Amino acid sequence: MDAAPALAGVIRAALSEALALIMPICCAGCDEPDTGLCEACRAALAPRTQRRLLRGVDGDLPVWSGLAFEGVPARVIRALKEDGRTPLAVHLAPALAAAAARFGSGVVYVPMPTSRSSYRRRGYRVPELIAAKARLPVATLLRTVRHVGDQRGLGRGDRRRNVALSLRGVRAEGRRVVIVDDVVTTGASLEEAVRALREAGAHVVGAVTTAATPRRVNGRRPADDAFETHR
Ligand SMILES: [Zn+2]
Fold this sequence. Notes:
With 231 residues, the chain is of the alpha/beta class. Helices cover 37% and strands 21% of the residues. It has a single domain, classed as Rossmann fold (3-Layer(aba) Sandwich), CATH 3.40.50. The protein has eight helices and eight strands, in the order ααββααβααβαββαββ.
């Protein structure tokens, strides 16, 4: 496949880890010098599981997340995703593990595919990395079949159109699965994953994410359980 770009990414990731050893570092959460993650920011990554529902054709699916994507958790996740700071994954793993604990055993965890360009740039796949540190049984049953444009800045309807029919399930027949992603925003990508896995014969019981973008209604966060709007 694309071994050369993947290798380039792996080398880049290794270099950035090596550089982190000799370059001055600062806390990914608050910029305090000389630490990768300070005590206060470690504490801010303590899991606080929250649930949303993906409303779909066969009833609602729970999406459990370990953290709110804001403040320290958002900064740490961005540092892992954009700055190559892979050692942070171990500090995010408890949040994902706490979300996964809601589903118990007897399921396999299916990571959302990382786009080819993101993998080439980073040299690692973020959902897989955190899932491995959380010791979740992972099965790669989703493939990207169509390039998807950047989701940032798009509303829910546009995101859904953007990702429609972009994924395909493979070797998924009869498997009980939970989808894994790093952050859920509108749920449009997760819905596409649910569609693809169901079409491939999987029984999708829900999804887990390390963090969830706080949902705001008229600028305020609703007090009740946040719901995704209906399909
Ligand atoms: Zn800090």
